[in-house]
Structure formats: structure tokens, C-alpha cells
Amino acid sequence: MFTRPWNTFYRERIERILCDKKQVLDIGGGLRLATDRSNRENRDNVWITERIKERGVTYIVLDYVDTYHPDIVGDIQDLPLPDASQEAIVCNAVLEHVEDPIKGAREMYRVLEPGGYCFVYVPFLYYYHAHEGYYHDYWRFTKDSLQSMFKGFSVIEICSVRGPLETLIRLSPLGRGAFFQDLAFLLDKALGKLSSQQTSGFFVFLKK
Q1: How far apart are CA 19 and CA 58, in angstroms?
Q2: Cα–Cα dist 134/64, whole Å
Q3: Which of 47, 51, 113, 120 is the most buried (most CB within 10 A)?
Q4: CA dist., res. 64 & res. 42, Å (int)
Q5: Is the pTM of this model over 0.85?
């Protein structure tokens, strides 16, 4: 197992959110901290649950249907929240599933308080992943589109997730094998391709 720079980016920015803010809105439940509030649990994120408990952070899940028992039922394109009411937002793998992601980005900006943080993941070179009866799969995003969508924020930090070779492996039948992913990562690193725009997707950290 090798430490990827995008995993470091993810952990550092989530740590910053949980250190600086006392309330986090998880749109879509993408942190997957528990199966009773999302469609599966990501055991790699146990450390987030621990930080939330240690620091007394209020963690709220919003989803547009009540299938997985969110705290709030609402649409990211028309958030049922007052202006400047949220300290921090996480929006992980949601914007590709909504009809108007630009409106979703504007809504997140609207409900964030001044100085509020937002952490986003979106795919670029990534397989089709609709969920029948739950959500469709509409969009893919480039770095240019992200800079345009989030141009109202005072801070925009964008980190590529995977280099081109590891992205290719992930799209192939070999994509589930750790050996091939690690080999592709090492080749991307050796060839100076880790910041390539030919990537699986992007992590984005924003400050209003």
C-alpha cells in the first residue's frame, strides 16, 4: 500500500473542517459513516467518526429521498436551508447525479456562512454508475469546469485523484486488483503524471 497524494489532501482537508467547524452538512451521505444513514459504510472513514465524537461536531446528512434515513430530505439544487446557515459542507460524488450541478454549486455557496468550508468530489474519467430507482448519472467534470462552477469562492484548491495510468487500470477489468493499481501509481509517479488532468476525478476544497 502506497500513500497517494490525493488521499493526503482528502485527510488533511477533512481534518481541517472537523478542527475549525462545529457543524458539518453531508449532502448525499457520501462520507458513508454508517449504514443507517447511507447505502453502505466505508470502514476507511472510521477516523472521521472518531474525530466527530472527540470534537463534538454536529454531523447532519441531507439526501433527496428518505431511503437511507437522512436527517434532512432535500434537493441540492434547491436546499431547504436559510442563507449563510451552514459552517461546512461535504458533497462527495453527488454533482454528477443531479440535472443542474451548476445550480447545486450555487446553492451550496448560498447556504454556507462567510468563511465556511466546502469539500467536494466529482468524477472525470470514470465509469457509468447510476443507481436504479435512486439516482441517474449525468455528468463528468474537468478542472476548468470546476474553476468556473466555484468561481464565487474565495479559496479553490483542486487535487487530481489518480494519474492517467492508474485511471486506465481502474477503468479496466484489472481495476479491482491492488497490485496493478499500485504498479500504475508508481509508473505515474516516476513519469511525473500525478498532477495530470487525465484523471479519475477531483477533490475540491473551497472557502466562502
Answers
A1: 12
A2: 9
A3: 120
A4: 21
A5: yes
